[in-house]
Amino acid sequence: MVVASSIPQLSSGAVGFPIIDLSLDRSHVSNLMVKACEDFGFFKVINHGVPKLVIDGMEKEGLNFFSKTDLEKRSVGLLKPLGYGSKNIGFNGDMGDVEYLLLHANSQSISQASKSISKNSAQFCSTVNYYTQAVKKLACEILELIAEGLWVHDKYAFSRYIRDIDSDSLIRINYYPSCIDSAAPVHQSHGIGFGEHSDPQILTILHSNEVGGFQVALHDGTWVAVPPDSMGFNVIVGDLMQAFTNGRFKSARHRALANTTGSESRISIIYFGAPPMHAMVYPIPEVVKHMHHSLYRPFTWDEFKKTTYSLRLGDQRLDLFKVL
Ligand code: GA4
User: Fold this and answer.
1) Candidates 313, 319, 320: which one to mutate for ligand 1, based on the most atoms within 8 Å of Cβ?
2) What is the C-alpha separation between 33 and 158, in angstroms, rounded?
């Protein structure tokens, strides 16, 4: 079978990120995913099977919402932490030049939220549901491929958490206004759209339009720009995946720069795959076996999420769960 991944050299000479073609041989793809998770905690998938129509529809609903007046957008409510937000990220003083909609990824919550988000709430609701279902399916496929690549006996060891009816997965639309539309002077936003952080969940699936600004840090801390590609999805290892794999995978630190030069707005749509609140998280025995001891103590997602929200965006929250 043809090689399913490439690690392109960037013109600067820096290493680019793996691109994994999901239409190719399954066992090869699963090995490449494990390698990408180990080396970068990040990769891009192409030929992912999510219809363009579904992505375009979601993006259109997002742009439609963000083009509304401040008053209209605020009427959605800042549901702490779900709902509409502008500039404030979390509760501890983090800020960025970004507007966002943050929703629970289950159809009941989407339907409820739709009523205050769009005049055509039925259409908004079905568009967001279609997108969420398609991306959740992709996330499950990726998690099952990773389980296979890790030789974990139970192929559903990770995906069962986000397949669970009570999964706490989220869907987020981030809107980074063009410098022309941005209300914040550049000196105020410090050039940051969404500051450096790792995602606390299991796995993140990020789509963006053709506007750049997204960056991922290598393990040595070097920041690398991810070229925008509206045909692909970016896959980001979250903190819980780092815990499940006993640190064999590291959650990828990433950030979005504010749009300081371009005349186009950047929009990204992000699915965060998370377990139910009371699910226990601990390093899986098959991985620990090769490493002799667990790096992290068992904890619930509820406990981890509470810790996450008590800290700053860029904090290394998983360190607090290490076995001493
Ligand atoms: C980062 C990943 C998701 O966007 C998010 C974010 C959450 C928020 O914006 O409300 C957090 C951030 C994220 C991590 C640290 C805390 C919580 C803002 C913040 C300062 C929805 C999530 O789950 O964690």
Assistant:
1) 313
2) 14
Q: Of ligand 1's atoms, which has the minimum distance to the CA of residue 315?
A: 15
Q: Which residue has the tokens 């009570």?
A: 166
Mutate to test the pocket of ligand 1, among 86, 89, 198 (most ligand atoms within 8 A of CB): 89
d(CA 39, CA 220): 11
CB atoms near residue 53 (< 10 Å)? 9
Q: Is the ipTM of this complex over 0.85?
A: yes
How many Cα atoms sit within 13 Å of 304 on the Cβ side? 31
| pTM, rounded to two decimals | 0.94
Longest dimension (CA), the chain: 57
Contact between 170 and 102 (Cβ < 8 Å) = yes
Ligand 1: centre distance to CA 90 (Å): 6
The string of DSSP letters for 108-174 reads HHHHHHHHHH-SSHHHHHHHHHHHHHHHHHHHHHHHHHHHHHTT-S-TTTTHHHHHSTT---EEEEE
Fold classified for 17-313: Jelly Rolls (2.60.120)
Angle between helices 121-149 and 107-117 (to 10 degrees): 140
CA of 91 to the centre of ligand 1 (A): 9
Residue nearest to atom 12 of ligand 1 (CA): 313
pLDDT in tens, 243-278: 999 999 999 999 999 877 778 999 999 999 999 999
253 tagged catalytic: no
Contact 237, 37 (CB under 8 A): yes
